Structures are given as C-alpha cells and as structure tokens.
UniProtKB/TrEMBL annotation:
Location of the Flavodoxin-like domain: 256-396
Pfam families: Flavodoxin_1 (PF00258), ODP (PF19583)
SUPFAM superfamilies named in the record: Flavoproteins, Metallo-hydrolase/oxidoreductase
Database matches in CDD domains: flavodiiron_proteins_MBL-fold
InterPro entries: Flavodoxin/NO_synth, Flavoprotein-like_sf, Metallo-B-lactamas, ODP_dom, RibonucZ/Hydroxyglut_hydro, Rubredoxin-O_OxRdtase
Protein name according to UniProt: FprA family A-type flavoprotein
Entry's family note: In the N-terminal section; belongs to the zinc metallo-hydrolase group 3 family.
Taxonomic classification: Bacteria, Bacillati, Bacillota, Clostridia, Lachnospirales
Gene3D superfamilies reported in the protein's UniProt record: 3.40.50.360, Ribonuclease Z/Hydroxyacylglutathione hydrolase-like
Top-level taxon in the UniProt lineage: Bacteria
C-alpha cells in the first residue's frame, strides 16, 4: 500500500505521518502526531529530498517504490542529519547502489558518525550557491547553519519556485490526509503547534533563523516544502511573518500570561485575584497555567506568544518552586527575551522565590520587571490584594503603551 500525493507535476510527497509517537525527540508531547516529510523529484535524474524516521521505514519505502514506477534514485539530497530525517540514509544507499548523496562537508562527517558506510564516489559535496541540474529542475543550495543543527542546508528549485526548507517552517501534528496549508484550518488547528515546534526546537537560534529568512527573501518562492507539517502553496507571507516575529523574539500578541507555581493553592488564589483585576482594568487577553500541570513545551510556546508575563511562585526549600525553576531554565536555554514580567512570591517563613526569580530574569535579555513585586506570607491578605490591583493597573497601562 502506498500513500503519496503530488506537490507539482513531477514532485511526489513520499513522507509519512506518525500518530503513535508519544514524544518528539523523546521530550515534547505529541498529542496529534507528527509527519516526516520527504519529496521525490522525478526528472531526467531522480532526486529524493531527505529520508524519514526509522519508525515509519516500511511505509516510506513503499511510498518511494510506488512513486518511482520502476526507476531508481540518482541523488539523495540530505538537508539535515537529525535521525527523524536521516535514519534511512544507509538503508537507501544499500538499496539503490548507484544513488549518490548530496550534502555539505558537515553532512558527510555526520553520515560517517551515524553509519558505517563507504561513501567513496558516492558523495556530491555542495556549498553555498552550488547548483545540481536534474533536467527540467535545477536545485540551488543555501546553507542554514544552526537552524537548528550546524550542518543544515536548504535547497531551492527554480522551476517550481519551491524552497525545501528543512526543519524551518515545520509544524507538529499529523495532517489527517491533508498535505497543503490550504487543506487545513492552519490558524485554528495548527498555529499553536507550529509555534510550539518553533519555540522549543528552533527558538534558541533566532539570529540564525533571521539569517535564513534574509537569504530566502532574495528568492522568488511560491511553495515551501518543510520536513514536518503542511506544504505551503498559498498565503506564504502569513507563515513567513510568524517566523519573522518568533525569530526576533517579538511578542505575537499583546496579553498577559500568568504562570503559577503553587504547592497548596494559596499562590493560585493570588493569581486568580490578579487575573480578575486585569479583567476589571479591561485587559482582554489573560491566560493562566499551573506550571506543575502543563508540559513545559506549551509554556515555552505561550511565552513566545504573549507580551506580558506574571510569575506567581511559592518558595520551596529556600528556592524557586522546582517546576517554575525548570520553566525559567528552559526560557534561558531557548534565549527567551524582550518581555514585561511581574513577580508574585509566596513563603511561610522566609519568602525568597521573588528575589531568586529576579536574579534569573537579570541573566536574560530585555526582561523588564514591572513593579510592585507582591509578597504573600502563606495566604492572601487585604494589603496584598491592593498591591495586586495596583499591579493590574501597571499592566493595563503598559499594554496600552505603543498601541
Ligand atoms: C517542601 C516545602 C518547602 C518549603 N520551603 C519554604 C522556604 O524555604 N521558605 C518559605 O518561606 N516557605 C517555604 N515553604 C512554604 C511555602 O512556600 C508556603 O507555605 C506557601 O504559602 C505555599 O503556597 P501555596 O499554597 O501556593 O503552595 C515550603 C513548603 C514546602 C511544602
């Protein structure tokens, strides 16, 4: 059985969706799966654009064999060596003995690291701007180092004006039979997962992503074919604009994200009070999460989205409540920056989480702390309720600025 679709007259999607994988990179929950995209260009020469994860090998090979209709593969273009795309390189080298691998020198090195293969006379090394003629199609290679591994490159097909974008413009989520962005309700059903993918996987490398966007701006692109999620053939500016926003660490939306680290719920009550006060002040977008309940990858995605953040946190063994500390650590690792943040701390004998959170924020770029910092000693009292109302006013004013 094969499951393939054409993305143009002679380019066939041979990728595979996987709904069974629980966590991407054994880390990020996948409630609706993921796709491993791969594309076969059937020209005078046949080029396969990347392979797929070992979990889907059988279906992937079936797809390729059907699309080939008895032909063989001349070139395997490797854009990225992460095993969710590179796992089948050796298998394909064995299966198609005349196939050559196209990639840069770092890709060649990594192929040898991952596999015991002899690449003598089987490697075509390419650098920035090099081209590979296939017949009607000609691929031009553009290096994209650290988006999000060092060897990453993308390629551009002049004939169909397609950018094979590697992991850039990828999205979590299986596609349920769809292939193109205009076959799904992307803003409704995929945007959150696209942001979660970007923020957690590529988010650390904003500068490198900006460099790639700059190079891409010089190309006439009508289709973006990433390694995960839908192929973009319409409204490209919409998704490119999202990437501009995310990679420059600009908030996507004005609104307040409240993150609560609470052991017994008292800190939650304070967060509830603040949320209600924000509503009273006319703040339309307020979103609250318990950091113990929500996987940190969703919290990271949300902080990439919202302009303003409240960290409401209990003190735990003279430290920051562990789940909140984990979140802050992830923010630092992913270079989260440029947000307005307020702190609500709690402690029964020596509240310290506020001071410690402030120290962590100071290590990050452009994280402005809004005052007052509110200190609760066990449960919320009248005095702190007033401080929370005052903080809500400060937020409302800050949100209005620049409108
Ligand atoms: C294991 C544990 C360690 C704690 N460590 C501290 C501490 O170092 N300093 C402090 O002031 N309170 C400490 N507390 C108390 C809590 O911070 C305090 O009771 C707070 O009000 C809890 O808020 P919550 O109801 O939102 O969980 C600790 C509580 C627990 C359960």
């Amino acid at each position: 059985m094969q499951i393939t679709r054409k993305i143009s007259d002679d380019i066939v999607y041979v990728g595979v969706g996987d709904k069974r994988l629980a966590r991407f990179e054994n880390l990020f929950p996948l409630p609706s799966g993921v796709t491993y995209n791969s594309y076969l260009i059937l020209d005078d020469k046949v080029a396969l654009m990347d392979t797929a994860d070992s979990d889907v090998t059988d279906q992937f090979i079936d797809n390729i064999e059907t699309a080939l209709e008895g032909r063989t593969i001349d070139y395997l273009v490797v854009h990225h060596m992460e095993p969710d795309h590179g796992a089948n390189i050796k298998r394909l080298l064995d299966r198609y003995p005349q196939m050559k691998v196209v990639g840069n020198t770092k890709i060649e090195t990594m192929i040898h690291q991952f596999f015991d293969v002899d690449l003598t006379d089987r490697m075509v090394i390419v650098k920035e701007g090099d081209s590979l003629p296939l017949g009607k199609h000609e691929l031009t290679f553009v290096m994209a180092p650290m988006v999000h591994w060092p060897e990453v490159m993308v390629s551009y097909d002049k004939t169909t004006k397609t950018l094979f974008s590697a992991d850039a413009f990828g999205t979590f989520g299986d596609l349920d039979g769809a292939l193109f962005n205009d076959e799904v309700d992307f803003p409704e059903d995929y945007l959150d997962e696209a942001r979660r993918y970007y923020a957690n996987i590529v988010g650390k490398y904003g500068m490198q992503t900006q460099a790639l966007l700059k190079k891409a701006a010089g190309l006439e692109i009508e289709m973006i074919a990433p390694l995960h999620g839908p192929v973009w053939r319409s409204n490209l500016e919409y998704f490119i604009d999202k990437y501009q926003t995310w990679s420059s660490y600009e908030p996507e939306e004005k609104g307040v994200l409240i993150l609560v680290g609470s052991i017994y719920g008292h800190t939650h009550r304070a967060a509830d009070k603040l949320a209600a006060a924000l509503k009273e002040e006319g703040v339309s977008k307020v979103k609250m999460y318990d950091v113990s309940k929500t996987d940190v990858s969703y919290l990271i995605s949300e902080i990439f989205k919202y302009s303003h953040v409240v960290l409401a946190c209990a003190t735990y063994n003279n430290g920051i409540f562990p789940k909140m500390a984990d979140f802050i650590h992830d923010c630092q690792a992913l270079c989260v920056q440029n947000r307005q943040v307020a702190i609500v701390e709690n402690g029964s004998w020596a509240p310290a989480s506020g001071k410690l959170i402030r120290e962590e924020l100071a290590k990050m770029k452009k994280m402005e702390v809004l005052e007052p910092q509110v200190t609760i000693k066990s449960s919320l009292k009248k005095e702190q309720e007033e401080e929370l109302c005052q903080l809500a006013k400060v937020f409302a004013q800050s949100l209005k600025e620049g409108e």
